[in-house]
Amino acid sequence: MENLNLALTLLLAGFVIVFLVLILLILIITVYGKIIQFAQKKVSKNKEDTEKPAIRSVTREEIEEYGSDEIPEEIIAVIAAAVDAMYGTKPHRIKNVKRSRSIRSSWGNAGIAENTRPF
Q1: Cα–Cα distance, 71 to 64 (Å, whole number)
Q2: In whole angstroms, what is the distance from residue 89 CA to residue 53 CA?
Q3: Which stretch of DSSP H or E encloses residue 81?
Q4: Element (H, E) at 116
Q5: Element housing 24 (H / E)
Q6: How far, in Å, CA of 55 to CA of 61, rounded?
Q7: What's the whole-number mean pLDDT along residues 87-100?
Q8: What are 56-87's pLDDT values in tens digits?
Q9: 18, 24, 52, 93: least CB-packed within 10 angstroms?
Q10: Looking at residue 26, what is its pLDDT?
């Protein structure tokens, strides 16, 4: 009976210690997350304060000048938005937009990309 009492006491003490450590880890991770969110908000607020380059509209003549008359203007606008999202902090200019003349299908290109990616 004495061994059973000792075993139950050790079992209960083990459970209490494990759960207290888990609760402590949860609190540490939560506080760390709040600190990171605060820092990110502060950095994004500083970025918003910096001056962005002025956006100018592109005329139809400029689009036709670069030979992209076969691609609809909406597609060019989407490409320009993607470039701006990728390189938003630096000034950039899209000089030319051409259709891809790929011999392979999209599935073939995806297979090659999957099989040749670095480890």
Answers
A1: 10
A2: 9
A3: helix 73-86
A4: helix 106-116
A5: helix 2-49
A6: 18
A7: 75
A8: 666 666 655 655 446 777 878 888 888 888 87
A9: 93
A10: 97
